[in-house]
Amino acid sequence: MFGIYNQLKYQFFIGGSEMTTKEEELVERLVKENEDFLKAKQVHMQLAKQLEDLEKKPFLSPQDEMEIKILKKKKLVYKDQMEKILNQYR
């Protein structure tokens, strides 16, 4: 589980700025203790990877552009879910 935290450590931002050490410790704890948080992080990571792969394409079809919009919206939903859980523990 700690590996999952490390992978997203620098991808997950809180309030538009990088996480503080205290925030990082809270995220690390939640990854270990809160199944909903862990699942949200895992899905967020998968969506981020899909989005990254799609955006690397030299040419985007209209379908690709639509998929990018959908992936960004889904990714935001999971980020919001993680933020909601974090707020419960702050």
What does this structure look like?
The structure is a single chain. This protein has 90 residues and is mostly helical. The chain has a domain at 1-7 and 36-90. 77% of the residues lie in helices and 0% in strands. The protein is built from four helices and no strands. It has helices spanning 2-8, 21-33, 35-55, 62-89. Helix 2 (21-33) packs across helix 3 (35-55) and helix 3 (35-55) runs antiparallel to helix 4 (62-89). The protein is elongated and about 40 Å long. The model is unreliable at 1-5 (pLDDT under 50).
Please report the distance between the alpha carbons of the first and last residues.
Answer: 21 Å
Q: If you average the pLDDT, what whole number results?
A: 86
Overall, the morphology is elongated
Largest sheet: none
